[in-house]
User: Fold this.
Amino acid sequence: MIQYETALSFRPNYPFAIAALANSNASAGNQRKADSLNAVACYLIPEVGFYADRAGWELEKGNVAKATAITEEILAMMEDDEKSGHIMSLELAKVYLYLKSDPETALEYVMKEYTIRPENIDINTMLAEIYLHMGQMQKAKSHLDKALATGSEDPSLRGIQAVWLTKNDQVAQGESMLNELYRQIPYFTNSFSKETGSGTL
Assistant:
């Protein structure tokens, strides 16, 4: 959290630092503080990611109706972005996977990007994550290998790799990787965090 607080000492109204601090507080269990900071960030700039964070937290609290309403706002914002010429397929896939628990629709969106950029690390990481949710382990492994071939040490990719290992009879290796991730990044989360907890499935 210190780096975000330092950034805010120089730029008190920098919304992305405020949102990052909100996420850190949420991961640390300070949800009331997280909600307050997120509201400030959303007020300063209508950034889709800030709203997505809020929707995810409402889901975690069990406030499904509120989360659904925020998710519809997000989809409307993305529709406006697409009308302005922005390609939002990957972002839409994340909304459908993370907020609507709909991996099938998420897959439809991300495949639009995959046909254009089949070697892209973010797209292959997302496809691996989607196929893991769908229980299609071989397809998940295929896209995971493509992403890993880039040599990236991105935490999101490493997290998905660790989850794949734990779900494919390599539990000790996967848990070791997850524990190391949580050691390096105490507030690390992904779409399997409810299963992995602090690093153990």
Q: What stands out?
A: The mean pLDDT is 88. Residues 51 and 74 are 7 Å apart (CA to CA). The chain has two domains: 1-86, 87-201. Residues 1-86 form a domain with the Serine Threonine Protein Phosphatase 5, Tetratricopeptide repeat fold (CATH 1.25.40).
